[in-house]
Amino acid sequence: QVGILDVDLCGPSIPRMFRVQDNDVHQCDSGWVPVFVDQDKSISLMSIGFLLEKPDDAVVWRGPKKNALIKQFVADVAWGDLDFLIVDTPPGTSDEHISTVEALRPYKPLGAILVTTPQAVSVGDVRRELTFCKKTGLRVLGIVENMSGFVCPHCSECTNVFSKGGGEELAKYAGVPFLGCVPLDPQLSQSLEEGRDFIQEFPKSAAFPALTRIAQHISDAASQQSS
Amino acid sequence: QVGILDVDLCGPSIPRMFRVQDNDVHQCDSGWVPVFVDQDKSISLMSIGFLLEKPDDAVVWRGPKKNALIKQFVADVAWGDLDFLIVDTPPGTSDEHISTVEALRPYKPLGAILVTTPQAVSVGDVRRELTFCKKTGLRVLGIVENMSGFVCPHCSECTNVFSKGGGEELAKYAGVPFLGCVPLDPQLSQSLEEGRDFIQEFPKSAAFPALTRIAQHISDAASQQSS
């Protein structure tokens, strides 16, 4: 049982990635019922995207209003018995991040996964996020380098569109695990775009082994913690 | 005379893009002195990046603190006589955006330039930003599609890594000008990475004509307004 909580309140993208953007959330006795993605009800989502009347509605909210909703998303959603709760945050180290860490503290979160692109500009942002994790006592499970190299589907040559290696270097520098590089992969972005099941449809895609390795890494970290 | 104000307080990237990340700002009688990029002092910058002691310092700030600094950045910096003030915001429609629009209202800002990538997920975010501009009475100067197609340097074939056309469609739908597509260009990202002058060094790059066209469009909009 996996819950996915989208705390990117101004840019909720998780509902579309799972092709459930037209669903609504309902109330039950134990709170808001999250949206289930599959028939087995093994993956449930909560996002402000489900609460907007129209998809173009802008969430013009200052911090305090965001903080109140994030608390509700953690406490007032009928998540049920979850094995994992995955929280997707926007970039930064502000209201969404502080409120999420505070709301989850009683549940002893396993840790944070930091995602960078290879460029120094992006690595700089993630260095600041590392400092945030240190300050708030959140363990860093590892760093992922996204958009790392593009393999041309015509000639199979790889080009490092945004340079390369920034994520791995940063992991070494910070003494945290490097979880791997996810290449720029048109099949992956197409899947996210159309809410299709990448794992089922593109097992031979370049991003597939990279994503599998990252998932394995995190699942290992989780079983170490619980043992 | 151009001023550039970086209100991405948790992820200030402008100083590095101009290779002045080691500069400090000083006080003078008329306020903070911005950092000048060139010898002619025609481009001046202000960013929280100049105020941090160490580059890894995390700005763990909730909204109200961010709002206060943005007001200071507009009112208490000795910008001098500017032809343009360009404000770079993080994604979203929250504290940084509301505070910037409020602080600049007395100066009658020309408008907003919205940047999307081609995917539906990103276009969805920018649709919400369009609603924000409407609500706050900010004119939309136009929409730019970034990361739009990649021309392989080995075989010259173009691949639309993140699909294509989302920005142009959105501009049509919203009835605002489409300013053009900026391709994924390793020379552009390398320039931003190393703080080099893209315009001087790579006039034959694929992104060059796209950027020129966008600049021309904006400068035309500005002269129309002032005439």
TrEMBL record, chains A, B:
Subcellular location: Cytoplasm, Cytoskeleton, Cilium axoneme; Cytoplasm, Cytoskeleton, Microtubule organizing center, Centrosome, Centriole
Task performed by this protein: Component of the cytosolic iron-sulfur (Fe/S) protein assembly (CIA) machinery. Required for maturation of extramitochondrial Fe-S proteins. The NUBP1-NUBP2 heterotetramer forms a Fe-S scaffold complex, mediating the de novo assembly of an Fe-S cluster and its transfer to target apoproteins. Negatively regulates cilium formation and structure.
Name of protein: NUBP2 factor
Subunit structure: Heterotetramer of 2 NUBP1 and 2 NUBP2 chains. Interacts with KIFC1. Interacts with NUBP1.
Superkingdom field: Eukaryota
Keywords tagged on the record: 4Fe-4S, ATP-binding, Cytoplasm, Iron, Iron-sulfur, Metal-binding, Nucleotide-binding
InterPro entries named among the record's database cross-references: Mrp-like_CS (IPR000808), Mrp/NBP35_ATP-bd (IPR019591), P-loop_NTPase (IPR027417), YlxH/NBP35 (IPR033756)
Gene Ontology terms, MF aspect: 4 iron, 4 sulfur cluster binding; ATP binding; ATP-dependent FeS chaperone activity; metal ion binding
Broad class of where this protein is predominantly found: cytoplasm
Tagged with keyword Chaperone: no
Gene3D superfamilies, per database record: P-loop containing nucleotide triphosphate hydrolases
BP terms from Gene Ontology: iron-sulfur cluster assembly
GO cellular component, one term: nucleus
